[in-house]
Amino acid sequence: MEVRDCLVSAPGKAILHGEHAVVHGKVALAVSLNLRTYLQLKARSDGKVCINLPNIDTFVCWELSELKQLTSFLSDKKEEMQRLDAELVKRLREFIGVTNGNLDSSASAILAFLYIYLSLFGSGDMPSLTVSVWSELPTGAGLGSSAAYSVCLAAAFLCATGNIPTPLKEWEQTGRWCQEDLELINSWAFQGEKIIHGNPSGVDNAVGTWGGMLRFLAGKIIPLSRVPLLRILLTNTKVPRSTKVLVARVKDKINKLPSIMIPVLDSVDAISCTCEKVLTEMTCEPITGDHYNILEELIDINQHHLNVIGVGHPSLDTVCQVTAARGLHSKLTGAGGGGCGITLLRPETDSTTLQGTMKDLRDCGYDCWETSIGGPGCRKEDSRRVRPLWRIWISITVL
Ligand SMILES: Nc1ncnc2c1ncn2[C@@H]1O[C@H](COP(=O)(O)OP(=O)(O)OP(=O)(O)O)[C@@H](O)[C@H]1O
Ligand SMILES: C[C@@](O)(CCO)CC(=O)[O-]
Ligand SMILES: [Mg+2]
């Protein structure tokens, strides 16, 4: 089978409120970032399947004949893809040589790639191709890098199988899919997230697919179309952590101390709902200092809750202390345990305060930058732009 070349991208995300609680059926508010992951799919004619993942230093090729041996039991299971195919996962783990324990970065990314590739192509004619992925997002730092990766894999393979159209017209630089196609992309990306995360809520892949700001509750995605323009400072503490490990740790704690932990999750739920209400008010009445005071208070309370549920880290406490010294309020974002924090900037936060805060954070060894939120969801990019995009990526990583 010959596939058409394509280039797709998906954004990372920041969770304003509701990380971890969302895994246990509570509300989360999340927003896309202007940092994206790009995936280029190129057909080959030498019977190999190759993957280049420069962000995690992973470059692998397989013979199609090796991969075909893994598919002998596969049927056309597309309609029952809500659950992971445990037999396929087991075979793939054996194939890549990790039969027990948690997977490292490289093994998780390879497993997600092979799972989606074999699920979509394995029951038919399997194409020889190269997939190259590069990202502006820090990997494993709370900004949804795994979801952006999974969304890109899903979108590119679904385009390649012809399950969704290749939406780009000749004169367009980017193109999006219709709602039904986005739902299909999102459901396959969720499978990738399950491989990487273990027990994801689905909020990260939903933001990577649709972009913008959304409210997520038990798999239900409600886009928030009217939201105020928030200024957010992102800080990457560079402390490595794994979302899978942290999500499992929280689950253990809830099982061990349910009467203590469940009220905390309920309070996080109320924080997300109150935040949503305040954000909505800010779009239909003049924005006042009081709105920001409440948003800041919610950030502080949630950060304490996240420490209580065991996903804080001294580096994140430092972010909170350094920003508080300048009158700013911060919390961790994503799975915590290190990774990134977000700081809410007020409209009146002047550049002296901002520059001073950024300098203090950089002096702690962290990366930080002001970000714009609400970027577009996954989309098809013009393949002719691949060279400039690679160049931008290389210059970012070299800097
Ligand atoms: N650009 C990429 N190339 C290949 N694999 C990637 C890439 N980005 C992420 N991954 C995969 O996702 C894993 C990181 O996922 P993880 O869920 O732990 O962090 P995150 O998604 O960045 O943070 P969070 O889930 O808290 O938002 C990596 O170890 C790797 O397996
Ligand atoms: C920690 C978590 O709530 C957010 C990770 O970005 C996990 C999830 O929702 O899948
Ligand atoms: Mg993730």
Automatic annotation (TrEMBL):
InterPro entries: GHMP_kinase_C_dom, GHMP_kinase_C_sf, GHMP_kinase_N_dom, GHMP_knse_ATP-bd_CS, Mev_gal_kin, Ribosomal_Su5_D2-typ_SF, Ribsml_uS5_D2-typ_fold_subgr
GO biological process: cholesterol biosynthetic process; isopentenyl diphosphate biosynthetic process, mevalonate pathway
Span of domain GHMP kinase N-terminal: 127-207
SUPFAM superfamilies: GHMP Kinase, C-terminal domain (SSF55060), Ribosomal protein S5 domain 2-like (SSF54211)
Catalytic reactions of this protein: (R)-mevalonate + ATP = (R)-5-phosphomevalonate + ADP + H(+)
Molecular-function annotations in GO: ATP binding; metal ion binding; mevalonate kinase activity
One cellular component (GO) term of this entry: cytosol
UniProt name for this protein: Mevalonate kinase
Naturally occurring in which organism (per UniProt): Poecilia latipinna (sailfin molly)
